[in-house]
């Protein structure tokens, strides 16, 4: 007879997250993130200049509105440091819930703000505060969603899974602007293009207030998550970084630099194709202060949404290509295409401004956006070790937003000639693409970086004691010397 086995005294390891839950939880958060941002971007063009920044000069009002739009980008690195710290210290799940709450609350409160006519200068001040808070929440959202997807991805499919949070951008755009189109249909603009009085008075608030519904859905899904096995491995090995930000700058500064500049062209293209084109497309075709295409807002948003569909389709396609051919190769060829596309901006509209020309321009630009945005969900996390992956990828992603996106609409407005010529706007995009190309040349392929095996990470972390000195894993991403 054999003795009965002794009962185990170890604590059972929590089961992993089902793939369907990973997909939904990573996608819903970024969809809300981009919904919030598109709602603000659209309002910043359509109503905020007159409601919060009344000025005799319409260009000055528009520029003031764009300044608050840019403010969130400067808040995002602060958010990435705060949420990155807790994401690398206590875990991904709790941090993802907190970032969503901050972001969603700020967006909802923007819809409740009084305007300049009601409280004077305090109106733009409160708008700026809420916008900054929105940026804080956004600073922790993307990286957590990307890590949720990639750290739970099947072997060889991190590119595809990493592209899933990126789908939040086109989904958020379609939700936000589809709602604006519906509101615009119910509250149509005047024959001279003037904003409907009801929309000006209260209609613009609806998209901000409805964000609360999306936040509730997102919280429900995320509360049901369990911590990734990869991060649990770091906790069990005792290699959690005490101060993740300091650790990133000390041991992963090169991935931080190339990751940041590798995202610049993506951000510039993103906000040129969404925010600037909306302003250019709906400005009067003749008049003061600048000449644009002169489309009604609802019609141009419809054309823009057609382009965004291609953005959505090509984002997971880019993830597949990144798994098949590598992140670096996919991004190098795409960035080269972005550089060439920037040189053609004015030529698209030199002979015609008809809807076929406009929608073709939007489809090409937003297709390139999908191809460059998709692989980033895998590339940035792969550049950093697990114990600082949240902080490293979040800081790179959000500092890139300052360099690429925060100033893009304002710079584009300044480079947009009074006669309607936008060659210099496209040239700015080309220069950004060249910067990104140089950064990508310093990145070696990361698709084989092994951070999906918790046991392997644990061994690497313990083996690093002698070489690093404090028991922390070195970056699994590789850089050219």
UniProtKB/TrEMBL annotation:
Protein's membrane topology: Multi-pass membrane protein
Record SUPFAM superfamilies: MFS general substrate transporter
NCBIfam families found in the cross-reference section: 2A0106
Protein name: Metabolite-proton symporter
PROSITE patterns to which the protein is assigned, alphabetical: MFS, SUGAR_TRANSPORT_1
Species of origin: Curtobacterium luteum
Occurrences of domain Major facilitator superfamily (MFS) profile (ranges): 22-447
Cell inner membrane keyword on record: yes
Stored Gene3D superfamilies: MFS general substrate transporter like domains
Keyword vocabulary terms for this entry: Cell inner membrane, Cell membrane, Membrane, Transmembrane, Transmembrane helix, Transport
Broad class of where this protein is predominantly found: membrane
Domain of life: Bacteria
Family annotation (PANTHER family): INNER MEMBRANE METABOLITE TRANSPORT PROTEIN YHJE, SHIKIMATE TRANSPORTER
Location relative to the cell: Cell inner membrane
Entries under Pfam families matching the protein: MFS_1
Bilayer-spanning residue ranges: 66-84, 96-116, 122-150, 171-190, 202-223, 256-280, 300-322, 331-350, 356-374, 395-416, 422-443
């Amino acid at each position: 007879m054999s003795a009965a086995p002794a009962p185990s005294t170890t604590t059972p390891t929590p089961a992993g997250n089902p793939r369907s839950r990973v997909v939904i939880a990573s996608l819903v958060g970024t969809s809300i993130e981009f919904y919030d941002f598109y709602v603000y971007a659209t309002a910043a063009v359509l109503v905020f200049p007159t409601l919060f920044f009344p000025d005799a000069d319409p260009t000055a009002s528009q520029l003031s509105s764009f300044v608050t739009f840019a403010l969130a980008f400067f808040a995002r690195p602060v958010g990435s440091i705060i949420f990155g710290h807790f994401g690398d210290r206590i875990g991904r799940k709790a941090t993802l819930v907190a970032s969503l709450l901050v972001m969603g609350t700020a967006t909802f409160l923007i819809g409740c703000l009084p305007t300049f006519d009601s409280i004077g200068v305090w109106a733009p001040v409160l708008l700026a505060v809420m916008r900054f808070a929105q940026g804080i929440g956004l600073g922790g959202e993307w990286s957590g969603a990307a890590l949720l997807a990639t750290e739970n991805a099947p072997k060889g499919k991190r590119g595809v899974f990493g592209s899933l949070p990126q789908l939040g951008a086109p989904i958020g755009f379609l939700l936000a602007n589809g709602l604006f189109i519906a509101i615009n249909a119910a509250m149509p603009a005047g024959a001279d293009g003037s904003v409907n009085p009801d929309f000006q008075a209260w209609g613009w608030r609806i998209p901000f207030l409805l964000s609360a519904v999306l936040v509730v859905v997102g919280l429900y899904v995320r509360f049901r998550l369990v911590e990734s096995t990869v991060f649990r491995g770091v906790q069990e090995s005792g290699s959690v970084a005490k101060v993740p930000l300091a650790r990133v700058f000390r041991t992963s500064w090169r991935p931080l630099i190339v990751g940041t500049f590798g995202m610049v062209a993506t951000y510039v293209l993103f906000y040129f194709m969404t925010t600037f084109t909306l302003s250019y497309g709906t400005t009067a075709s003749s008049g003061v202060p600048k000449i644009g295409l002169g489309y009604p807002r609802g019609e141009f948003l419809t054309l823009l949404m057609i382009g965004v569909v291609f953005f959505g389709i090509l984002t997971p396609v880019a993830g597949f290509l990144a798994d098949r051919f590598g992140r670096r190769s996919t991004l190098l060829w795409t960035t080269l295409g972005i550089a060439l596309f920037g040189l053609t901006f004015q030529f698209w509209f030199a002979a015609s401004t008809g809807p076929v020309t406009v929608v073709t321009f939007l489809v090409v630009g937003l297709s390139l956006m999908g191809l460059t945005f998709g692989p980033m969900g895998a590339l940035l996390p792969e550049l950093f070790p697990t114990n600082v992956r949240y902080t490293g990828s979040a800081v790179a992603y959000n500092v890139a937003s300052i360099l690429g996106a925060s100033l893009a609409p304002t710079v584009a407005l300044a480079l947009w000639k009074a006669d309607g010529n936008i060659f210099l706007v496209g040239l700015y995009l080309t220069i950004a693409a060249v910067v990104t190309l140089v950064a990508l040349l310093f990145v070696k392929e990361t698709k084989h970086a092994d951070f999906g095996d918790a046991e392997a990470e644990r061994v690497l972390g313990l083996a690093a004691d002698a070489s690093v000195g404090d028991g922390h894993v070195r970056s699994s991403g590789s850089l050219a010397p």
